[in-house]
Amino acid sequence: VDLSFLDQLMLNQCPNIEYNVILLNYQLPAWWENALHFANRIVVADGGAEQFKLKKRDYIQNCVITGDMDSIQNETLSLLQKQGYQIKKNMDQNTTDCEKALNSLDDKIPILLLGAIGGRLDHTLYNVNLAMKRSNQPIFLINKVNLIFIVNEKVKIITNQCQNIGIFPFTRSKIKTEGLKWDIDGEIAYGGLLSVSNTVLHESFMIDTNNAIQIIVTGKFE
């Protein structure tokens, strides 16, 4: 898992991965439109359109706006329709707007979920759960200061030295790390050992796990 694509996006450089973007209705990193510019496909989830309308470029060819449309203002919806954007109304009340957006993407390339964390805690936890349900596909939940993604096997993670790392399981898990200030070789669980405010010693670290776990990177992603 190479996180250097974040530095490239912050510098408005074409990143070293192909990816899709889902734009949600909460705190976005300052480079959010850079991410749209280089994306294969863009899905704007309902109220995320209120931020999307501030865009400086056109993305008509590879963008769709979806959701039950209960969070988007009528003026915004009308504006985007006049600009030629595809609107797909989905009234399924058993799925969130984020879930509707994820379900609309049928390829398996990485997804950047922008605006998916922060704000209401139940929304954040639900969005993390959506990523966990798709743990075989790289999904990155990003705001200005946090990055969350799921790993479910032995991986090398390339990131910046000294970034803070948290490791949280969904279920009781056995993990082994190499390259952190406080390496772990054992079991982690809610109600037991967790890894909080750990630090990457060099430019990468390795983690091996027998179950899906959350990696939380804290830094300045703006």
UniProtKB/TrEMBL annotation:
Annotated protein name in UniProt: Thiamin pyrophosphokinase
Tagged with keyword Kinase: yes
Keywords assigned: ATP-binding, Kinase, Nucleotide-binding, Transferase
NCBIfam families documented for this protein: thi_PPkinase
CDD domains in alphabetical order: TPK
GO molecular function: ATP binding; kinase activity; thiamine binding; thiamine diphosphokinase activity
InterPro entries (alphabetical): Thi_PPkinase, Thiamin_PyroPKinase_B1-bd, TPK_B1-bd_sf, TPK_catalytic, TPK_catalytic_sf
A biological process term (GO) from this entry: thiamine diphosphate biosynthetic process
Domain Thiamin pyrophosphokinase thiamin-binding: 154-213
Keyword Endoplasmic reticulum carried by entry: no
